[in-house]
Amino acid sequence: MKIVDFLGKWLDKVKIGHTSGETIVIDIPPGIYYKELALYTAYSYLANAISVCEMRVYHNNKPVKDRDYYILNVAPNKNENSNQFWHKVIRRMIRNPEGALVVEIRGELHCADTFQVREERPILGNLYDGVVIGGNLQLKKIFRAEEVYLFRMEDENVKQMIDGLYTDYGRLMEAAARAFRDTNGRKFKFKVDAVKAGDEEFNKEFEEVTAKNIKAYMENEYATYVEYDGEVLEEESQNKTAKSSEDIIKLRKDMFEIVGQAFKIPNAMMDGTMTNVKDMTDIFLTFGVDPLADTITCVLNKRATYEEFARGNYYKCYTGRVKHRDLFDSAPNADKLKASSVLNTDEIREELNLMPIGEEWSKAYYITRNYGRADGELDDVSGGKGGEE
Fold first, then answer.
1. Which residues of 284-300 are buried (b: 16+ CB within 10 A; e: fewer)?
2. Are 380 and 372 in contact (CB under 8 A)?
């Protein structure tokens, strides 16, 4: 993110100093706060969901917890944990038209702050250079497509479309804010004798003293203003009807809903008025998180090559643990999963964020007679007789 964009979230005017000593003052439109806050809300939802996903590693089609698992789920490099890393990746995917580029250096993963496509090669694979990591470390190496992880959301850049749409909404917000200020603001008339109005000494005194006193009088909650003969300070339009901020609130809500629709996030999540949390979460996971997780899975496996994938060595971004699971609320479902031989005891404990037991019986699969075969036979299941006595 550019320094102007970052500071613009907090300041109405941004002062940027250059090495030459020149200072540039940039006016930040107030309406941009709404757009940036909406984008942050959307990216935060997505990044928080991905950061709690488990990046599973499979060798010979069996899950393992090796060095790759540690890098993807605990610490991808010496300066970041996996939560920070995946937040950065998702943010780059949303804000950068080219996506998020991750490079591997000495067995560690680093998400590039900036990079550029050196050469587009449809057959041989693109070349990338100008890779900057860690804030200011620029790598001299030219990376081939098979050496990097390039995470992109979609062909169309959502951020650019939102920026284009904001052009119109920004004007509407500025107009609504101006109307609110003009209607609710207090304006005064300062009347003086015609003789004083043409007196240069009076004009100088007004600029240096009187104007400051009037400003202090209007801005302070408790203030006294002294009027002299021939001078009258009176409020203009005292009977005007106050205007509510409803128009600004509606435009702000529209902006949040538009951003939410672009990233497949339910409107109730964007404006914080969720009532049916389960349904909202299911929609969010199905249309917002699962496609993003599938993209991550595909990129990881693409980098690992087809040969490894064919041998049963692959990665999977597992979203099953994004939703919070209460231990006691999950008990009936856990019983069904075990009784139908879908999961064993250790797998159920892991899904509930508990430590696996690691015994032979906890790794075995059981099935009740209620789930017998259609032909009436019930084969023994490894680890137990597989039926009720």
1. bbeebbbebbebbbebb
2. no
pLDDT at 389: 37
Residues of the chain below pLDDT 50: 1-20, 381-389
Q: Which residue has the tokens 């999950």?
A: 330
Compute the half-sphere exposure of residue 184: CA atoms within 13 Å on the CB side of its CA.
10
What's the sign of the alpha-carbon dihedral 249, 254, 52, 338? positive
Largest CA distance in the chain: 114
Is residue 249, in this structure, part of any structural domain at all?
Answer: no
Q: Is residue 46 part of a domain?
A: no
Domain-embedded: residue 367: yes
Q: How many CB atoms lie within 10 A of CB 48?
A: 15
Tens of pLDDT, residues 107-147: 999 999 999 999 999 999 999 999 999 878 999 999 999 99
Can you list the positions of beta strands (E) in the chain?
13-17, 23-27, 54-59, 62-64, 100-105, 108-111, 114-119, 127-133, 137-138, 143-144, 148-151, 187-192, 231-236, 314-318
Residue 364 falls within a domain, yes or no? yes
Q: Which range marks the domain in which residue 340 is found?
A: 328-389
Torsion sign over Cα 71, 354, 365, 278: negative
Amino acid (one-letter) located at 218:
M
Each residue's pLDDT tens digit, 343-370: 889 888 888 888 889 899 998 988 887 7
**CA atoms within 13 Å, Cβ hemisphere of 285:** 17
How far apart (Å, rounded) are the C-alpha atoms in residues 370 and 389? 12
Q: 22, 100, 87: which is closest to 48 by C-alpha?
A: 87
92 and 111 in contact (C-beta within 8 Å)? yes
CB 234 within 8 Å of CB 249: no
Domains of the chain: total:
1
Radius of gyration of the chain (CA): 31
What contacts 88, CB < 8 A, 6 or more positions away?
Answer: 80, 100, 111
